Amino acid sequence: MADIFRVSPEGYQEVRTGLGWRKVISPMSTEATTELPVIDLRDITDPDQNRRKAVAKSICDAAASAGFFYVRNHGVPDEVVRSIFVQTKRFFHDLSLEEKMEFDTSATLITMAIIRSIKIRAYLLEPVRCGQL
């Protein structure tokens, strides 16, 4: 497990993520947050590419700063959202760290799926990494 955690040159503990090495902070730290960003997906299908990129940038920023975020105006049925929360709880509470680390997020490109009724239509922004937005 030596490749998952390390001590930074500044002396604090870091964990390897798909976004690179991230500082591990205590829940008691003043750096810790208890709020998650809320991303509005309304403009993800807008004909204006700048509006779509703005949504993608807000997702990247939230993922880099908080690591998690909520979305609204996504069109996902409530039943599916409930199922996602069940699986998320299973991932974070039931799996060991070794099992969690098997999920590779380092090669993820920005793709957005808009669910309309039962059909899924994917809108692919130009495949770029967050730093290129």
From TrEMBL:
Gene3D superfamilies: B-lactam Antibiotic, Isopenicillin N Synthase, Chain. The keyword Iron applies. It comes from the Eukaryota. InterPro entries: DIOX_N (IPR026992), IPNS-like_sf (IPR027443). GO terms for molecular function: metal ion binding; oxidoreductase activity. Residues 36-106 form the Non-haem dioxygenase N-terminal domain. Keywords: Iron, Metal-binding, Oxidoreductase. This is Non-haem dioxygenase N-terminal domain-containing protein. It comes from Cladophialophora chaetospira.
